[in-house]
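QUALITY CONTROL LOG
STEP: pairwise intake check
CHECKER ROLE: data steward
CRITERIA: each record must contain a sequence immediately followed by its structure tokens, with no blank fields

ENTRY 1 OF 2
RESULT FIELD BELOW
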Amino acid sequence: MSEPSEGVKLQEPRIRDFVAVGAGPHSLAVVSRLLETKSRFYTDHDLTTKRKYYQEVDEETKPLDVVVVDPAGSWLARWHSAFDQMKIKFLRSPVTAHPDPFEDTSLLSFASSQKRESELLPIDNLFFRTGNETKTSKSRQTEHRSRKAKQKESFNQVDEKFFRRPSTPLFRQFCDELIERYNLKDIVYKASVTKLEPIFDDAVASQDSDDESEDSSESGSETDSDDDDHYVRQPRLKKKPSHFRLYLSDGTEILTKRVLLATGLTLSNVPDWAEAALAEAGSALPARICHSDNLWITGASAPALYDRRVLVVGSGLSSCHLALTATSYNASKVLLVARKQLQAKQFDIDLNWMGRFKQYQLSKFWQTTNWKKRLQMIRQARGGGSVAPDILQDVRDFSEQNPERLEVWENAEVACIESLPHPTEPSRHVWKVQFKNSDRVEEVDYIWLATGRKRDACSEPLFKDLYEHFPIHVEGGLPAVDIDLRWRSGVEVYVTGAYASLQVGPEALNLAGAKAASERIYTGIVGGVGGDENIFSILGDSND
């Protein structure tokens, strides 16, 4: 992981070309795409000489004035910290999902060039073979019908290498190389953005008065009728912002013409019974009760769990990772409470949204012009919390072999908690936990909430500021941004991650969605021009 940047200087008052808020994988994908101007025009021959092209881009084009603002001050710091603390060995996403804009198979090629193919974990029981094995005519017909019936949720064997899962160290080194390739290390400024403010220029406002009376983007409110499948065009903006001012936590201000919001989901989903206790605990670590969002804050060490009892609440992948992590830190007992049966699922979206049938599903999604129906398709594809089969098996195995150390209690819910003094150590407190529809009572030292995050663009920091100035339609907490992931036409704020779901689709918050979003944002900024026009000529003259 790269160290916090020392190279960004914000004292000079000027309008930047582009400011990204957040330094996670989605932000890395977008910034890299803006700097990689030729990837869409490569031929097969070009792919073998990509290093030469990267050198030409660096030497022949004017560098963009790009700043990335992140509380950690370095790329993917929170991502790496969480993976390190929870000792996650392999990503859940396939090897084709990564932030490199150059090519889908670049991580696969990187593993091969480094002779690290062994760090690509094969996925069992996902692919079926299509060879002409010797079979009777009847058995072949039966198998053909069976395969045809399950093709929409399975993959051909030829797809197998593209769906291997990269190891955490391999992915980390790959991203480090990406950061070095595009000289991105020294563009990250250590701070949080506390406010986003649009700046209006009278000249721009006057020019806008001659524009058409309706917004031509795909964003906007929809009709009241669910059967009326079309967008209602938004009224034009009375004033379009000429640029934006970002207020930072250290008192610094940044002016920029374009903003990328890549902060992810920051609103924790907290059960009612935990709200008061969580608010009282604050942000100090180690906290006796903590949401998983804040448990592995960058730079924070794991709490001392030796001879302590831990309650983990949740039914998704994070809850299983946390349960295994607590056991690895020598907790005396870990109780994993899930309100539903733990669901084994290779990826967090249905298989028919991946592989050969991905484009078919996406085409149906994009042809649906009703926000409610799109939201329904997203929810159906994701299907709630799930766990990668290998991780769930690890949890099951450990629980069976060490029942005194790890217990999994499914279809159970916490009713209330109470803080009590420890019976033998007065200075120490424990949680008394009671459960719904059960007489069982547990006493634990720590409570970890792996209960997910809220999607609420009207309450999310920065999104809330934006919504107040430029209200748009919000469906199920997700903003109806335009097709290029711009907040709305005339407002040069772009969105990636989960809040781009209504346009990108169910994979928006995943690594695959990061790449898809980066292409849309690049196209939105360039404006669909081709030929010799590139991002540098569009953005690079903003200060002239």
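ENTRY 2 OF 2
RESULT FIELD BELOW
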Amino acid sequence: PIKTCVLYYVFEMTTTNSGTFGQKLSRDDWRKKKELEEARKAGTAPAEVDEEGRDINPHIPQYIAQAPWYVSTGRPTLKHQRPQEEHVKTFDSLTDWYKRGIKKGPAATKFRKGACENCGSMTHKKKDCLERPRRIGAKFNNKDIKPDEVVQPDLSLSFDGKRDRWNGYNPDEHQTIIEEYSKLELAKRHLKDEKLQAELASGQLSEETVNKTEEDKDDDKYADEVDMPGTKFDSKTRITVRNLRIREDTAKYLYNLDPNSAFYDSKTRSMRENPFSHMNKDPSELEYAGDNFVRHTGDAREFAKSQMFAWEAVEHETDIHPQAEPTQLTLMHREFQNKKDGFKKDLQQSILDKYGGKEHLEIPAKELLLAQTEHYVEYSRLGNVIKGQEKAVAKSRYEENVFINNHTSVWGSYWEDGQWGYACCHSFIKGSYCTGESGKLARKTSRVSRLDINKDDDETDEERIREFKMASKKAKTDLKNDQEDDEKERERKVRKAMKREKERENEIEEIMKLDEKKRPYNSMKAEGGTMPTEEEMEAYYRRKRRKDDPMSEFL
């Protein structure tokens, strides 16, 4: 170890900062070298420059900046830390690909030595030839000699290049698809013009309608002017892009941070379920209740129905646009619904007139016939409604504010000693005739006389209470004596168990002193197969020696 330390110190002293071996530095040179390094780190001295003219960071540690002896260049450098050019793999570019199905120039007219005997190509032999085997090969008749195939290059592709699905694809081939769809669109317009001309000739359409249709041939005539809130339309690419939310709005995924709450789709920025479903609140009172709630509330449904009606109208060649002509669309949709409902009613009436059975449609509701309904209501433990709608409860089964028998208050307006009555006469008999103030006075007199009678009863009750206390005191004394006897009996059993435990420990010590070969058979086997009793467990705990107890040595 001492030799290793000395050699390392000599190596450090004889090595410059650039990693080259030089003559041994003196103390002054070593001190100047360290001062220069500190100045470079402080920024008062210029940094070192490598062979390419780039500055070397003075804060780079020495074990990184110092080049090994076998790659040292004799000057400061960090080239040994960069990828070496001779070890860098080069790959072919994306433009290089296999040339499939290409033949070399014009075919030869005479058979060449070393060519395929079957087809005359120079790039393969007869056993590798893919041409149909000829009865007389090209070697013997010099006829129909095939051109040479292009030798495929040995491409060196990277990891991504090997898995590039579009590698070798010619973008010009997509132009054929565009031309095909353009021809289809042109054919559709031609058929539409022919149909309009035929309807005009038959008198079904007027010339004004035809002229208007020809002017509005472009299906996307309003596309260039679309500027709806929350959308951005590009007329060149025909793509509608949703704008980002306002920065001041709370993000949907921040309403409820529970990972088991409503799912948030980050790709479409949508949260369809209600993030506050665990609160059992009305969704209309919440700040945000999910995209599905917004989609199915308010005028969203009517708007969706109008949009569907507009699409179906366009398919039936009715020119209507929901954004450009919303009022006309609403009127047309309303008129369509009225006609549809009228048609359904006429159809139903015609079936009833033809086959009968109108009396079966006039039966009462199923709830009235069966006195029950399939409406589902789920309650919590506290009686609150979790799902469904709670059945309405009748407010009262009696007529309100109806005074009978000369009473000036209703039954139940007076309460005394657990009984209801009338407040006007203090009567507890329902339906009785009102006695007014005289009734109140009679009630008060009878109550005073009842209190005098109860005084004699109270003296008898005191004697009974005194006897009961004496009996309960005697029972407590007997119970206490019984408990003391039980404690003495338990203590006697515990001492007996402790004596047995001590004998068992002495027996185990005697057995452990013997040699293993001299121990009796089954001497280490536990006695009995039953669980220990409470007295035995207490004896074990009392005799157990605890090492952390400072008084254990005095037992």
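INTAKE CHECK: passed for both entries
DESCRIPTIVE NOTE, ENTRY 2: The two ends are 57 Å apart (CA to CA).
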